[in-house]
Amino acid sequence: MKVTHIPFQKTGFFSEIMHHYLEQNENLSPFYTNFPDLEGFKLQLSEKEKSFTSENRTILSNALLEQYVNFQISEETKSNIQLLKDENTFTITTGHQLNLFTGPLYFLYKIFSTINLCEKLSKEFPDKNFVPMYWMASEDHDFEEINYFNFDGKKVAWNKKEGGAVGRFSTEGLKEVFDVFSEHLGNSKNAIFLKELFVKGYLEHNNLADATRFIANEIFKTYGLVIIDGDALPLKSLFVPFVKQELQDTPSFRAVSKSIHELEKNYKIQVNPREINLFYLGEGFRERIVFEDDIYKVVNTSLTFTKEQIMAEAEQNPLAFSPNVIMRPLYQEVILPNLCYIGGGGELAYWLELKDYFNKVHVPFPILLLRNSVQVISKKQAEKLKRLNISKEEIFLNQYDLISKKVVENTEIETDFSDKIEYLKNQFKDLKVVAKKTDVTFLNAVNAQERKQIKGLENLEKRLLKAEKRRQKDLVDRITQLQNELLPNQSLEERQRNFSDYYLAYGSSFLTTLKEELNPLQLEFTILEI
pLDDT per residue over 301-329, tens digit each? Predict the structure, then answer.
């Protein structure tokens, strides 16, 4: 196995805001507190230690033990849950939707990043305990984002009609999905593991949250991963003061709007706040709460509340109040002794909108860490790359640019007209000196002719390259096929493929390799040749 690391920026798949965050650009410094390095963690430890109470720790630990009652909990995970009661224990958290059979590959990368960071911090701060947490997005209601996964280039989908929080969805209908999936797996040892994991996860649990917990627990339990479901009464009860504040004063809207106003001067905005950033969660529905005509209304329902009624509802029925994308991060940080959130580029971009809101409600803002990203290359693909003289960094070039570059490298014909264009510009420069001595119409004619001839040369350059690509069709086809294998749909494979593709080929050694090779503080893109 060979491991290569390249800067995230050189892959071309990460936004400008993430580039600047990794580079600690001064434009972004007002939007986060501590940077993800050891000095940043030292400062974050001090801040979080002061803000998290022993009472909250006990509630959290007991709630987690209750969530694991019907699951086979490992000693490592059980110990970590118990450690959360101690004032010197802190969490590192990542979150993910309840995607069918874990969804895209980066599910693994997020969690291994989280586990490995805990181990790294335990060595650096031996008097502290660090617990890896996976926050299940059980209250999301966008089923179409999670009801499928890709296997062997095909979409395996679960079609059903149900509303509300996806974690509460029945697993009915997944037997048919399993039948389709298992047909393509074969009967190898690795295939049998995948079949059993799917069956025990989805066919032996009644709802999607329990099924997802089982699968994540089976994969990561030996590393002490703790899986948390925020859709729980003891945890929601801790959030009641913030829910009431949101309903009464709308602090999130005002604070986040102010941050967006500053951020959008330089960056694309990820999410925009609503005046009230809460949903009302009921049986089979999750709908926005709005305030109109002095009445709180639940959109698309007949539910309405006066101010006194909705405040009482928040106290008596905390489970009914579900934070949206703006408030969910706050909920996480209120109920966890958390130091750092690990996520993808899009996630961290919207977290950067939230610091002022956290300050306003007096909750410490966590460190933000970009998760590890991985490109897996087989030995056969590595050999092809070598024969085609394509470097690891060149894999990620736009396909047109990659093919053009390699075709030019593989020809003796002069396809770059830069010198010719520069020579032409110099000739016109002399002509313009003469033109300036006449009238302006002649100078305009010279400028127009210059543009026309330069455009003509540029078109000839493109036509020559196109002709050369036709002549080198075999090379073009080989490059196209290989890059399409590595980057399905011209996107990072971690966003397209499911872990089952690689588990089927490599078994548990694939997971072991990820665990050994991912370094969350390295802040680089990892390429694995296996």
Answer: 999 999 999 999 999 999 999 999 999 99
Any residues with CB less than 8 A from the CB of 422 and at least 6 apart, and which? Answer: none
| pLDDT value of position 423 | 65
What is the crossing angle of helices 251-263 and 233-249, to 10°? 80
The percentage of the chain sitting over the pLDDT mark of 90, rounded to a whole number, equals: 85
Q: Which long-range contacts (CB under 8 A, 24 or more apart) does 271-274 make?
A: 271/325, 271/326, 271/350, 271/353, 273/326, 274/324, 274/326
Q: Which long-range contacts (CB under 8 A, 24 or more apart) does 380-389 make?
A: 381/482, 381/485, 381/486, 382/2, 382/529, 384/478, 384/482, 385/482, 388/475, 388/478, 388/479, 388/482
Q: What is the number of alpha carbons within 13 Å of residue 493 lying toward its C-beta? A: 24
To the nearest whole number, what is the mean pLDDT of the chain?
94
CB contact at 8 A, 114 and 76 = no
Which residues are CB-contacts of 42 (< 8 A; sequence separation ≥ 6)?
125
Q: Report, as an integer, the average pLDDT of 488-515.
A: 96
What is the total residue count of the chain?
A: 530
Give the closest residue to 348 by CA, choosing from 14, 18, 12, 10: 18
Averaged over 405-418, what is the pLDDT?
79
CA separation for the pair 70, 341 (Å, rounded): 28
What sign does the CA torsion over 169, 171, 173, 177 have?
A: positive
Angle 499-506/508-517 helices, nearest 10 degrees? Answer: 110
Residue with token string 């805001």: 17
DSSP class of residue 100 equals G
Question: Tokens at residue 135, please?
Answer: 């926050």
Task: Report the run of H or E that residue 233 belongs to, with start and end.
Answer: helix 233-249
Contact by Cβ (8 Å): 91, 138: no
Phi, psi (degrees; rounded to nearest 5) at 220 = -120, 5
Half-sphere exposure of 126 (CA within 13 A, CB side): 1
- Give the pLDDT confidence score for residue 121 in this predicted structure: 98
Residues in contact with 39: Cβ distance below 8 Å, sequence separation at least 6, in sequence order: none
Please state the pTM of the whole predicted model. Answer: 0.92
Question: H or E segment at 217?
Answer: helix 208-220
In 3D space, the residue among 513, 524, 17 whose CA is nearest the CA of residue 265 turns out to be 17
Provide the pLDDT for residue 415: 64
